[in-house]
């Protein structure tokens, strides 16, 4: 068998395809471009026969006249039903790469001497991807040209449509000639600004090493000081651009000044209207392009949206093309860990699941709390941890198994030749056990764990991409059930995931449509029955589902990062309403309690958000209470304590919610700047009937008094509970005995009868 020559082929193919793309950019309609692609592929992989089919027809061939190409046989090869091609002079081992998109096709190669290796198949797919990008970019330009010609006269801007076509053509030629990506960004920003008549354009990209943050990489019309503040911004706190990235959809806001997801640097620059749409890299969201106007509102009509989307498509082409070329110049092994790359893993997986393959199982391995290690010990320690994990995973495998690093802290294992998922379980167990052992990271002993999803397929039962999705879903199920475990894929997981996706889409729309309302539950002084404050509780008024309980959507909001804009809206709405009530009340002012999630606490902008909300509402900081969960304190990082101390410095108070249900200890209560402990309802329920519960509840109250902390009992429902708690010196309480969570209007009537 001839060697794959993986160290030489990528460079050769890249050089040849660079010439090919330049030819396509200059002569997009010429069949010579197709012939150049086929000739290049045949030369790079030492193939005797090469055939390119587009839209079901042969457009170029090497080693075989086009009229002698067996179309039916090629179709069977393209769906994986055949691994050889019989021609007049013998049998050829074949491989292929599909071309997706608007002009689907297949590139088939054959040779007599030896089968193609997995590495060679990866290389061919990279070449086909470059060809696909060329065809896709031509289609985008042709669509814009037709739009300008067919609709231009009716809409009265034919000349404008032609300008759009010309600018898109300029960008396409720049991509084909390998203009540096930053220059393509600048070209797009200038063209979009002029064509749409906007004041600002900003292109943002996600950080490759940390997809949770993004930065503005090119802009026009954005003040320098504002652009400086838009570096490494968490996507969840990225305003309209962040929402476009999270939802993978175009977001348009006509009045930015009232948007619940407005960014303070942009509002300070007097941004009035904004529209953003995602850009992609190899089909995955990798950033966004946003346009906006200052001072004056803008109606983002259909033509404006289509123009922005067309240029976003071209940015996606530029990014994908650059990454494709970069990947083709790299070896088929991950540079950090030495494991197989995603492309090589996917190729071997498809060979395993082909009709002639042995079938097998996939393990999807995701590290638990890797981000905590990376953030606290630094990227050097994180890299060392990943190499250590790779080594331990490899040590758990059999000969012939393949381990790959998919990216970040995600790994995959291919186990060919198994007959069921049960046969993969011992290997999953070995990996879990191996990763529980401590790692020595730059002198610090560190412990982690992993969550593993297991999925199995018999030969030809599932495509490789489908099996990876199954394993991924099983891995997420393992995380939901507590982490440090494995789960085997079940069809019900996919049904639950689809429902989860539908609810997530509704949640993103709810933020823009202002579908949330607040309820206010009074907090009462137990000895005087005086209302001393309220807790703000969110409700989602879904137009079709009705009222969605917080327990159904808050975890999803935290998982997706939507809790950041939702939480900011709750904070601003609650402080504004309570400030209005206090302005009308006589006597001591009300306090307002707002829940704060761990995701919000991770945001660097949190202090500014809280300070801004208090200032805008004209509410003194002493009248705001932020409630934290016990688990947040237990799983804290050093930055958590610093953030809490910064919040305390504003003059507000901090409370531990649901106290007694988590893992708090005296050490945590002493270490963190807490002012209030809220006794969980589960203790209050039995405070009258169960002596043990009464003793625990009164013990918590006495603990609070000893530490000079205020105590609030949650869930008081009858007079007996009130008597017991008040007799035990609990200061305050809330619950249905006093009032259910009330609408703003109902609480207004209660406060001002």
Range of strand content: 15-25%
Alpha-carbon Rg, integer:
30 Å
Poorly predicted regions: 1-14, 23-30, 152-158
SS-derived structural category: alpha+beta
Largest sheet: 8 strands, mixed, barrel
What's the total helix number? Answer: 27
* Biggest sheet strand line-up: 19-20-22-23-24-25-26-27
Mean pLDDT: 84
Structural overview:
- By secondary structure, this protein is an alpha+beta fold.
- An 8-stranded mixed beta barrel has the order 19-20-22-23-24-25-26-27, surrounded by 5 helices.
- A hairpin with a 2-residue loop joins strand 1 and strand 2 (57-62).
- It is globular.
What's the short version?
The protein is an alpha+beta fold and 753 residues long. The strands form five sheets. An eight-stranded mixed beta barrel has the order 19-20-22-23-24-25-26-27, surrounded by five helices. A six-stranded antiparallel beta sheet has the order 8-7-6-11-10-9. Strands 2-1-5-4-3 form a five-stranded antiparallel beta sheet.
Layout of helices and strands:
Elements: H1 9-26, H2 31-44, E1 49-54, E2 57-62, H3 71-78, E3 84-87, E4 90-99, E5 105-111, H4 118-155, H5 158-176, H6 181-196, E6 200-206, E7 213-220, H7 224-229, E8 233-234, H8 239-247, E9 251-253, H9 264-268, E10 271-281, E11 284-294, H10 302-328, H11 342-353, E12 360-368, H12 370-377, H13 379-395, E13 402-407, E14 410-416, H14 425-436, E15 439-441, E16 444-446, E17 449-457, H15 464-480, E18 485-488, H16 491-513, E19 516-525, E20 531-542, E21 546-548, H17 550-560, H18 563-584, E22 591-595, H19 598-601, H20 606-617, E23 624-629, H21 630-634, H22 638-649, E24 653-659, H23 666-671, E25 676-679, H24 681-685, H25 691-706, E26 710-713, H26 719-727, E27 732-733, H27 744-751
Parallel strand pairs: 17-18, 20-22, 22-23, 23-24, 24-25, 25-26, 26-27
Antiparallel strand pairs: 1-2, 1-5, 3-4, 4-5, 6-7, 6-11, 7-8, 9-10, 10-11, 12-14, 12-17, 13-14, 15-16, 19-20, 19-27, 20-21
